[in-house]
Each structure stands twice: as C-alpha cells, then as structure tokens.
Amino acid sequence: MSPPAETSPGVEGASPGSCIVDQFQRLATLDEDECALLAALEGEIQAFEPDQVLQAAGHEASHFFSLQSGWACAIRLLPDGQRQVLDIFLPNQIMGLHELGLPTAQSDLVAITEVQACAFARDALEEVCRRSPRLSELFFLSLAGEQATLSERIINIGRRPASQRLAHFLLEMQMRQDPSRSTIDLPMNQSLIGDALGLSAVHVSRTLGELRDRGWIETNSKRMTLLDRDALIELCDFDPGYLGTRNRQA
Amino acid sequence: MSPPAETSPGVEGASPGSCIVDQFQRLATLDEDECALLAALEGEIQAFEPDQVLQAAGHEASHFFSLQSGWACAIRLLPDGQRQVLDIFLPNQIMGLHELGLPTAQSDLVAITEVQACAFARDALEEVCRRSPRLSELFFLSLAGEQATLSERIINIGRRPASQRLAHFLLEMQMRQDPSRSTIDLPMNQSLIGDALGLSAVHVSRTLGELRDRGWIETNSKRMTLLDRDALIELCDFDPGYLGTRNRQA
DNA sequence: CGCCATCTTGAGGTCTATCAATTTCAGTGG
DNA sequence: CCACTGAAATTGATAGACCTCAAGATGGCG
Q1: What Å value separates CA B202 and C1' D24?
Q2: How far apart are CA A114 and CA A86, in angstroms?
Q3: Contact B141/A245, CB-based, under 8 Å?
Q4: β-bridge mates for residue B183, sequence order
Q5: For residue A127, what pLDDT is reported?
C-alpha cells in the first residue's frame, strides 16, 4: 500500500524496514539496540491471499505476526456454522499475541485482504523479555491495548442496538486509520461486519441503509465516508479513550 | 474464606502468604528470589465491602490488584444507565492489568462480595520486568489468559441465545472454581449475571427457570448445583480450552 | 413479625433473525 | 462495447427472541 517507510534507514539490506519496529515506535522511542533485537527476531515477509489462514485454531500457537500491509482478523467458527470475529487487525499491528498463553489456539487468524506479514516464533517473546525489559513492557502494553478493544466490543455487542453498534464500529475504524479523514477503507463485506458485531448480514444492510438515509454516511464498495461524524458520535456515545496508542495519533 | 495457604512458609511475618505468589505458582514454579521480589512489591491487604469501588473509571489506572479473597468484577456504566460486566475475578487472580496501558481507566473495578485485595503500584510492573524476565513473561501470560476469557465472552454474547449463554457462563464458573465439584458459589444476583451476559434480569430469571425445569441445575441463593453437566456442555458446546491456566487445574 | 431486596410470572411490544426474491455491481470473455 | 456471471447488497414478509412494564411471590434479616 504505502511506499516503504523510512523509519530505520539501512538497518538491514534484506527487509525494507521492519514493521514491528514501526509499530513499537508508535508506543515509545526505541534505541538502536532495541530496533536491532526486534528486527533480528522477525522472520521473512510472507504473502497471503484473502481468506487464507495464517494460523489455525486447534493447534498450539507457535507464532505471532506483525502485519506489514493489508487487513486480517481473528475469527472463531462455531459448530453450527456461525462465525464471530474477535478482533480486526490493521497494517502495523501485532497479531496473535493473545493466543501465546494457551496450549491450543482458540481462533483462526485469517487474511481479509491480500496481506504481507512477518512471523515471529513464540520463543522470540521469551528472548525479548530476557534481553530487553523495555521491549517486554511494550509487548505487554500492546496486548493491553488489544484487550481494551475487545472490552469495548463486548459493551457494543452486549448493550447497544444495531444502529449504535454500527456507528461505533465505523468510528473506531476511522480513528484507527486516520482520525483526520472522513473517508476510510473498509475491505469487509456486510456478512463479515455482521460477524464482528453479532448481527446478521441482512440486518447490517438495513441498518447501514438507515444511516445512509439520514445522510450520515456514504457507502462505496470497499470504502466508506462519514458525512456527519458528530451525529454518529452522539448516536453511540463514542469515546475514543479506549483506543490508547492503537490509533494513529491525533 | 480459606485458611491461610501454606505456599511460602515464613517468607515474611507480616502477610499470611502472598496471594500473587500463589497465583503465579499456578502458572509456573517460582524460585525464592522471584517470590521475594513479588512479595516485596505487594502492598498491604485492603478490605472492601460489596459494591465498593477499588478503582474508578476515568482516572489514570495507578494500580493493579491481586485478589486474596472474595469476588470482584470489571464493570462499565453507560450514560443511559445500562451496565456491562466485562470480567469477573475470583480469589487468587490478578485484576486491572488490562487498564495499565491506557491513559485513563475505562471500567470500574468493583467488589461483588466482601473482598481482600493487595494493591500494586503501576511502577511495580516495570520494576519486575527489569529484574526478572521470567516474571515479566508470567505477567504477560496472565493478561493473555484474561483476554482468552474476554474473547469467549464475545462469542457467547454475540452468537449464542440466552439458554446457551447461561449454560456457558455456569460451566465457566464451575471450571474456574473447582472442576470436580458440581456445586459452585455464585454470589451474583440475576441482575448482575444479566449485565455480564448482555441479558435483562427478567430474562435471566426465565432462562434459569427453564434450565431448572429440565432438571439440569438447582439454584440456591448464593450457590448453584449443576445436576446434569453433560447436558449443559452439549447445549452450549462448551470447550474449556480457552481457560488455559486460569482454572484450578483439573 | 415486617421490611426490603430479589426473584418470579404475565402480557404486550420492539428488535433482530430467517427465508426468499430481486437488484446492483465488478469482473470476465466474447 | 456489450452480454454474461457470481458475489454482494437490497428489500419484503414472517417468525422468534428478548425487553419492558407491572404485579405478585419469596426469602433473608433485623
């Protein structure tokens, strides 16, 4: 998507800038040693097609990933065929940390769009903890940030009607992409959005239509424009505080 | 509740055994230095009444807690008066880790029963990371375990009808207390259970009545017996894999 | 014994799911 | 450039789950 970021000029010839370093630079400033340590543990960039599974549920979670480009999600399939999207990952985020503590992964990591990602062996985390207390704290904070998103999703699904759920979801996606732009990428079909919000695809369509009729949003195929952000914020009582450092800073 | 655990005999005269040490001993075996480091950072035991707030939303989360006895929960109040319980904490668990990464806490930590808890300053985490890579990894795993519970709750609320939600909730509580006993403590009124599962108190009453009529559970005031555990498991397709090390081992 | 919180039960209404038919749209090949 | 195609989105009708309001029963506790 974006041209190679110029964060770590010439750290290694192999990779065009380590994406996990980018991610962590948003949380705090890293010194050279820390950048090098992270970059060394990072595997090669792998490419995935839409719907391709990066890591399947049911096995031990042997890796976690840093997402270089594209969107991905953690998703859980229920025996009756229903699905629930647990979390959505945008470029420059770390995925799969939450499964490391369990003997077997509970959810699938699936590419939504075409994806480029770097795999880290589970042991890399241990290695980092041993070599850099600071980085281990940043991993901790990254996980805590993901957890805040999950908590907010619980509130959304548990206590808000469909229109508020959608408004909240769209606002979160805007904040996590670029708070200053009203048009956002949204490479998810309505079925997947429904699986993220605990709604049926049909009801997502109806509710988006309602927001569109009120003139608050405009929908394109893989893109969406928030025409009246204030109205959406008031509708669902949106408070971006939970996003912490997960959004691109304001 | 339980008599003083005899895990670390005579580590300190002051406290009758550090509860955070107990918690971590379940994840891994700690050596003397690690026990001492943890115990040193632990504050004095504080007592709280039911409904008392240990840490309020809106301020910076300056502390996290280890729960020595009693039940507590993380809860979020919505402007329209609705509530959502995000997580429930049982004795020997760590609470509030998830708020440490955010500038302001998003949820209240509230005592459900009478509670004894030890506070840790936020800096204690940093201190631990610096002094013991092993402990910092255990903190990480503790947070990951909490996150797995949250993920399962999202599935529960997002994709399961009320009877399955309740069955799943009761089975989780049983596993987290003592998988070998069919009678469990449940010091929550139906209103609070509803707030944890995204249901109204009235509907909780009806659905519990339904499970009772089928002969699958028996309800007392602050206690509940799972008469037909297999039926409940089949009803909600319960898989305890997500609990990891959070339950008292089988 | 009486009080208050909690639980139960009934009736009616709202929200959301499901099923099914139709339309839109991007992509493909003629 | 246009017809074809399959996925996605829209729309209507119906059914079911759950909520709300409200009244009554239960039960612990002073």
Answers
A1: 14
A2: 19
A3: no
A4: B225
A5: 86
CB contact under 8 A, A126 and B133: yes
Instruction: Say how many Å lie between the first and final Cα of chain A, rounded.
Output: 21
How distant is the Cα of A3 from the closest Cα of chain B, in angstroms? Answer: 30
Alpha-carbon span B69 to B116, nearest angstrom: 5
At B38 the pLDDT is 87
**Residue in A74, A148, A198 closest to B159 by CB:** A198
Output b/e per residue, A109-144; b: 16+ Cβ within 10 A: bbbbbebbbbbbeeebbbbbbeebbbbbbbbbbbbb
CA A17 to chain centre: 20
Listed as ranges, the nucleotides of chain C within 7 A of a protein C-beta are: 5-11, 15-20, 25-26
pLDDT tens per residue, range A5-35: 333 333 333 445 677 777 778 777 888 888 8
- Helix ranges (H only) for A9-70 are 19-27, 32-41
| Sign of the alpha-carbon dihedral angle for B4, B9, B11, B12 | positive
Q: What is the DSSP track for A130-195?
A: HH-HHHHHHHHHHHHHHHHHHHHHHHHHHH--HHHHHHHHHHHHHHHH-TT-SEEE----HHHHHH
**What is the per-residue pLDDT across B194-239, written as a single tens digit (0 to 9) for each?**
999 999 999 999 999 999 999 999 998 899 999 999 999 999 999 9
Q: List the one residue out of A32, A18, A163, A153 whose CA is nearest residue A87.
A: A153
**Is the model's pTM score more than 0.70?**
yes
Residues A123 and A132 sit within 8 Å (Cβ to Cβ): no
Residue B180 CB-density burial (10 A; 0-12 exposed, 13-18 middle, 19+ buried): exposed
CA distance A41 to chain B (A): 17
The answer on pLDDT for A124 being more than 80 is: yes
Structural contact between residues B154 and A84, judged by C-beta atoms closer than 8 angstroms: yes
Bridge partners of A95, per DSSP, are: A65
